[in-house]
Amino acid sequence: EVQLVESGGGLVQPGGSLRLSCAASGFTFSSSTMSWVRRTPGKGLEWVSSIVTYISATYYADSVKGRFTISADNANNTLYLQMNSLKSEDTAVYYCATRLGPAGDYWGQGTQVTVSS
Questions:
Q1: Does 83 have pLDDT greater than 90?
Q2: How many Å separate Cα 109 from the centre of its chain?
Q3: 84 secondary structure, DSSP code
Q4: Average pLDDT over residues 89-116
Q5: Exposure pattern of 98-108 as b/e (b: 16+ CB <10 Å)?
Q6: Residue 88 burial (10 A CB sphere; 0-12, 13-18, 19+)
Q7: What percent of the chain has pLDDT over 70?
C-alpha cells in the first residue's frame, strides 16, 4: 500500500524557515519523481517543486525559486522541502505527491504552513 505522510508544518513569522518532511512507503522511492504541491483558498492547487530521486534533478515554481530547496533521502525513503525567507503568500496546505504510472497519483494528507506575524 502506497503511503505518504507529511510533517513539519506550523506557524512561522515572515522571513522565517520551516522544513517539511514526507515519509514514503509502498513503492520504490529511489526510482520515482516526487513533488510538493500546495493548496490555498484563493489560488487553489499550485505545484511547488519536484525531484527525480534517482538522478537528483530538481525543479521549482518561479514563486519559490531561490527560497525553497527540495531533497530526497533515498536510504530512508523521505522527501524534504526546506523553506526559507517565507512570505505570507506561502501560507497553504502542503502535500507531497507522486505519480506511479498506470497505478495513478498518490497524495499525502497534507501539512498546514501558516506565515504570519
A1: yes
A2: 12
A3: -
A4: 95
A5: beeeeeeebeb
A6: exposed
A7: 100
